[in-house]
Amino acid sequence: MKxxxxxxxxxxRCLWALEEAGLPYDYVPVKLRTEATDxxxxxxxxYLALNIQGKVPTLEExxxxxxxxxxxLYYLGRLAPESGLLPQGDPAQRAKFDELVAFVLAELEQPxxxxxxxxxxxxxxxxxxQMLETAKFEFSKAVNALDHLLSCSEYAVxxxxxxxxxxxxxxxxxxxxxxxxxxxxxxELRDRHxxxxxxxxxxxxxx
Length: 207
Ligand SMILES: N[C@@H](CCC(=O)N[C@@H](CS)C(=O)NCC(=O)O)C(=O)O
Known about the structure:
Elements: E1 2-5, H1 11-21, E2 26-29, H2 45-48, E3 58-61, E4 64-66, H3 69-79, H4 91-121, H5 131-149, H6 163-177, H7 184-194, H8 197-206
Parallel strand pairs: 1-2
Antiparallel strand pairs: 1-3, 3-4
Helix pairs in contact: 1-3, 1-6, 1-8, 4-5, 4-6, 6-7
The structure holds glutathione.
The site of glutathione has 10 residues, from loops.
């Protein structure tokens, strides 16, 4: 199995999950925003053949290609059920897990990605500087909603570490790096989960 990724981007979620799951893999670093002629570029034709959007992550295993970080997380969770990355609870508990995953993608990370797009990812003529204030407003609304969605336990769902914890910790780390206002209890969540041995091993791989 090969994971194509770039540093602390969304591919880090998958790298961390691979380390939590203890599955064998090769990590292939990819460069964003470099000349397409660079063999390591996400715009190189060889990489575009794997991931038509020229984005990371990509997971390749035989004929299987996955190009969405959360699909990769579900896949790894299913490959390694004993890891607990994908909770095996009753339908209601699973539904709460799925709800949280959807919330992180649809509500919490979107303002962060809006900032990224309007600061560096979009072609300059499509960037709107006023978006940055809107993104801050949307992020604070999502954080308030999250306070109501999360239980008070050590982990996001039930009483065990799962990939929902990876998503939350990675997304708050992203928010901190992008200088959003992150409440102290979510900085603490990020610190606690990034202190896990698997997170540290993943971090060492991209350093
Ligand atoms: N929904 C995708 C988003 C993937 C994505 O946008 N990745 C960013 C890095 S975090 C990327 O590769 N961007 C390419 C670019 O900005 O040129 C996922 O969660 O995997």
